[in-house]
Amino acid sequence: MAVVLVFANRKGGSGKTTTAVNVADGLALQGKRTLLVDADSQAQATISSGILPYHLSTSIYEIIHLYIKHKGGKSWNREAVLSGIVRGKKRYDLLPSKADLSALELELAEMPGRESLLHDLLVEVDAEYDFILLDLPPSLGVLTINSLVAAEWLIIPLEPTFLSMDGLAQMMSILYRVNAELNPRLKLMGILPVKCDLRTNLARSVVDEIRRNFGAERLLPPVRNDVKLAEAPSFGKTVFEYSPACRGARDYEEVVAAILARSGEQS
Question: Could you tell me the residue ranges of all domains in the chain?
């Protein structure tokens, strides 16, 4: 069974997509069969993987609707999910997104059992992968809840500013609610400081605050500021492809090592 990991934060610009894409590639570099699911209608994980959404004929949106159409019928099988997965472009596989995914919130509003759609889809391909990673929008809608229901582990990327602590508090509240009502399996793997300059008093104060409130075991290795992390998506590359020797790549290597250790999937 695959380890299903979700990257989420209620605050936009918190480094979710950068983290999801680079962790996906980092895990693949460690020999792990990895699927990255872009569950955001902005399709930033798709674009960061070098794929233009308007070139796609099939995305997560079509796959979800196909599943709804054939749910419970004999015509639904794992090939239907696999048909939407992009293979061979990167070391990891990608279930891409495009703008029409935003319509899903309204289209599923009255559907019974809508919270488990993504979980049911991913069960179809679970055996194909060691890790399935989910990149989420900052909004709390159907797709975010679906992803949290599908996941086993939650990672919260966090820019070390005091305003971002409010997003962290909101995510923890959501985690408790999802645990109580929808998915008792979901656990916090860690809080990941990103865009981090520990030479500043502010960054050190925020990291110390996280350590005091959640314990050192819930703090993932910080990812430092690095312009290479910002440049890589414009070339459709991960940081490991764009600048493998930069400090951003080295930091994400440590994050990947921590994920492997905490998930029990070390080679």
Answer: 3-262
Nearest to 23 by CA among 264, 258, 230: 258
Residue 77: closest CA among 39, 125, 36? 125
Which burial class, exposed, middle or buried, applies to 204 when counting CB atoms under 10 A from its CB (0-12, 13-18, 19+)? Answer: middle
- Please say whether the beta carbons of 5 and 151 come within 8 A: yes
Residue that is written with structure tokens 């674009």 in the block: 47
Q: Do 215 and 228 meet the contact criterion of CB atoms below 8 Å apart? A: no
C-alpha–C-alpha distance, residues 200 and 242, integer Å? 28
Cα diameter, the chain: 60
The residue behind tokens 């936009």 is 12
Give the CA distances from residue 87 to residues 15, 95, 123, 186, in Å, rounded to whole numbers and listed in that order.
Answer: 24, 9, 18, 28
**Is it the case that residue 80 has pLDDT exceeding 80?**
no
Count of positions (residues) in the chain = 267
CATH of domain 3-262: 3.40.50.300
**Stated pTM of the model:** 0.93
Where residue 255 falls (left for φ over 0; alpha for ψ -120 to 50; beta otherwise) is alpha
How does residue 198 score in pLDDT terms, banded at 50, 70 and 90?
confident
Arithmetic mean of pLDDT over the chain = 89
